[in-house]
Amino acid sequence: VVLCHPFWKRVFNGDPKVVGQQINLSGKSYTILGVMPPGWSFPVEDAQKDYLTPLEPFIQKVVAQRGAHSFTLVGRLKPTVSLKQAEAEMRTIAARLAQQYPDTNTDRGVSLVPLHQDVVGEVRPALMILLGAVALVLLIACANVANLLLARAAVRSREIGIRTALGASRTRIVRQLLAESFLLAILGGLGGLLLAWWAVDLLRWFAPRGVPRIAEIQVSGGVVAFTFLTAIVSTLIFGLVPALQVSGSNVSGILQQGAKGSTGGLQAHRIRAFLVVSQVSLSLLLLAGAGLLIRSFFNLRATDPGFDPTRVLVLEQSLPRVRYPESDQQRRFFEQLLPRLAGLPGVESVGGVNLLPFSGNSRGSTFTVAGQPPIPEGKHPGAGHLAVTSGYFETMKIPLRAGRTFDQRDVKDSPLVVVVNEAFARKFLLPNVNPIGQQVIIDRDDPNPPPAEVVGVVGDAKHEALNLPADPEFYAPFAQEPERRLYFAMRTASANLAGMDAVVRRTVQEFDKDLFVPKLAPMETLLAAHLSQPRFNMLLLVVFAGVALVLAAIGIYGVIAYSVTQRTREIGIRMALGAQKGQMLKMMLRQSLALVVVGLVLGLLGAVAATRLLAALLYGVGANDLTTYAAVVALLGGAALLASYIPARRAMRVDPMVALRHE
Fold first, then answer.
1. What is the rounded CA–CA span in Å between residue 489 and residue 271?
2. In angstroms, rounded to a whole number, what is the distance separating the alpha carbons of residues 116 and 388?
3. 409 with 376: CB under 8 angstroms?
4. What is the pLDDT of residue 441?
5. Which end of the chain is more exposed for a tag (fewer CB within 10 A), N or C?
6. Domain ranges in the chain?
7. Strand duo 417-421 + 452-458: pairing
8. CB–CB of 634/550 below 8 Å?
9. What's this model's pTM, rounded to 2 decimal places?
10. Rounded to the nearest 10 degrees, how much is the dihedral formed by the CA atoms of 508, 510, 516, 518?
11. More confident residue, 76 or 651
12. What does the H/E/C string look like for 245-304?
């Protein structure tokens, strides 16, 4: 055995002397050959393993079974061999096997997938969308800072005009203004890194298990370098515009005008307007994406899985192959344990299944249906294949549509029977014929497998994905197809039974005191774990959209506040000539809302195009959902109105006599 580093630290306190010693695992003695390095994880599975043992001699039995496809193969190409060359060679091998074993290998090919693609392929679209959201937030923040710098530059225009008149070159002024911008960027970058340092642990805790290599995420040297590079580039792009704008102003005009009524010039006004429009439109993009993911998540959560997970506790019990090598031993153990679990206080019913819904495990088998036209070998249809005990359908509340479920009649030596779900009956059984009594011939190692009679039809229960229709499945009695692992579903009288773990552990270990008994897991928790990836995507995008909304509101507030300050003299003159306070408020709001409306229109056009990228992550809602867009426009429009109203109210409180003396 080779130990994984966390297991070695946890069990042996990191003692290097354990190499060469014996360890007992599941009743069998193993020699410790070594310890894997820290940070190593198994490349093709999410769960962290404790130790690694050789497949031999078990692998030899599996290789002899032509229908077994339960292993993942990992290979390293030679340096001179391309992926296309390897695929071509594998196609040749597959064709040769199809000729040699037509029953099992006809139309069966080989797919070579780069390991990186296999590991990150499923989460890559979501991660790229989140990266895009980060970029949009950065652009909004930069536009905000650029607007503030423009306002600051306009306030300092007289100072800069005097310095220019005294001989300061434009290059020197631009360099000074850029240096101030760089200081802001560096301080912002440092603050961001400190927040990131704290947030990484939160991110690791919150992220679903399906995110590959999540444990390796850290604020590394590369992250620090990227952060400061981003800060520098952002400064060059968004700090340069205000610097060039103010340094290129007409010196004599500035000195003659002073600061009276100056708004920084028409060009500066246009730049500020462009930045506000950009912030609003980019914020709407993020809010639209977040809104769609919110609706999609709640649609997914409201989806009926086909069974009732409430008050169901799950025990995943495995038997070591060393002590329970024979199927009769496995059958006997679980058949004796089932009634003992059913008799525990607080337990209403118990049922067992070899593959629990949303446990991450699945199995399928090919078959034929008696009475249908012959199907060539190798082209038999396939469906999900499960083994369940009596009481399973009742415990999970999977409804019975026709016939019966399994009971004491279905034992090892009784005629083979199956229960099928509605999807299986619709797709595969003979139409216009009572499904009860039809026969399914499951492909097995036996060249002449006996048929199994359909004795019942149950409702469709989803096993792998809530966002997809239930797959066709058939169920066999566990007594006729025993395995070393069985999931016990226990429906309890109360949602929270304190001490249930200890009671179940004692009950199981009455049959085998050396057996490891895992902790019970609520079925609702397992189902919620299936929703962890869409929940993760939704909440992160909601956070980014919320930040964007706040930044956009701050940007609008800043522009209107600056405009009120710069137009104080003008406002005073208007009020001295008889303008009402309400008219001043409307004037300032009109200026703001005109920009907001333009931003909303552009943002909607962008959202219609951009949200199509979210289509693969959505469920029960279209990428161009009008209800979501209307809600987002109302939210952003309301925030913009509030951000405009607060500084615009200052225009109503201007004293005309004070305003006429304002500089």
1. 64
2. 37
3. no
4. 92
5. C
6. 2-119, 124-302+532-660, 312-494
7. parallel
8. no
9. 0.77
10. 30
11. 76
12. HHHCCCHHHHHHHCCCCCCCHHHHHHHHHHHHHHHHHHHHHHHHHHHHHHHHHHHHHCCC
